[in-house]
Specification:
Elements lengths: L1 H16 L1 H24 L4 H47 L1 H14 L4 H12 L2 H12 L9 H16 L1 H11 L6 H24 L3 H30 L2
Helix pairs in contact: 2-3, 2-7, 2-9, 2-10, 3-4, 3-6, 3-7, 3-8, 4-5, 4-6, 8-9, 9-10
Length: 240
């Protein structure tokens, strides 16, 4: 029983590592898709056309954003690995110089005398620790433990899941026609999505929950207003 709970806790912890990607992927998905819906509504587009545009945007932008997130994370890891190999070579071939750098680093931190010598001896006795200290303190680089593939996947999943919400009512009304105001209900559902994602954003950034919610909802509202009036303007210009 305890082993199962420990396993579940570890799995939940792993999922939490990618909460940041989920939050920002979800924000982008909701904002961009709702902007398409608002622009189409402002342009008086048929629901079928609006759904096509929404899904095209959802899938294309979601894929593009996830690939960008993957490549960015992979590039950072590759850059870290490159500099780590350089530090490993320097520790192997220029130990006196690298030892002196470790000493300077810890002198700058306020250590001196016998304690400084002990710290330097301890670090330089373990080449792995030595390289790690050089990467962290000399170059200011720390390797991200997260998988670039999982970063891209989390971004894609959240973009599509949250970005689908502004299309949900239109899709439902298309197959099961109702008399409801589709744009109004879409706006309500999207606002709820922004509230939830904004709350999660506050957790990720460890900032005020209210501020994060207001920022996220405000961003979505601004994008929708701009898209609506641009759609309305273009419709009046091109469809006279």
């Amino acid at each position: 029983m305890e082993a199962a709970l420990h396993h579940q806790s570890n799995e939940f912890g792993k999922l939490q590592e990618y909460l940041r990607e989920f939050v920002y992927g979800g924000i982008d998905g909701a904002v961009t898709t709702f902007a398409v819906v608002a622009g189409g509504y402002g342009a008086n587009l048929e629901p079928g056309i609006l759904i096509i545009l929404g899904f095209a945007n959802l899938l294309a932008d979601g894929f593009s954003m996830s690939v960008g997130a993957y490549l960015s994370a992979k590039s950072e890891n590759d850059n870290f690995d490159k500099h780590e190999k350089i530090e490993q070579w320097e520790v192997e071939n220029l130990p006196d110089s690298e030892r002196s750098e470790i000493e300077d680093i810890y002198k700058a931190k306020g250590f001196k005398g016998h304690l400084l010598a002990q710290i330097v001896d301890h670090i330089c006795s373990d080449k792995e620790l030595w390289v790690s200290e050089m990467m962290k303190d000399e170059l200011g680089m720390m390797k991200d433990s997260k998988s670039p593939f999982k970063i891209g996947l989390a971004t894609l999943i959240s973009f599509i899941l949250v970005g689908f919400i502004p299309l949900l009512i239109y899709l439902w009304d298309f197959f099961f026609p109702t008399n409801v105001n589709t744009f109004l209900w879409t706006s309500i559902l999207t606002a709820i999505a922004f509230l939830i994602v904004g709350w999660l954003k506050g957790i990720v950034n460890q900032t005020s929950t209210l501020r994060s919610i207001l920022e996220t909802v405000g961003l979505g509202l601004l994008a929708a207003i701009v898209a609506f009036y641009v759609g309305d303007l273009l419709e009046s210009f091109f469809m006279k």
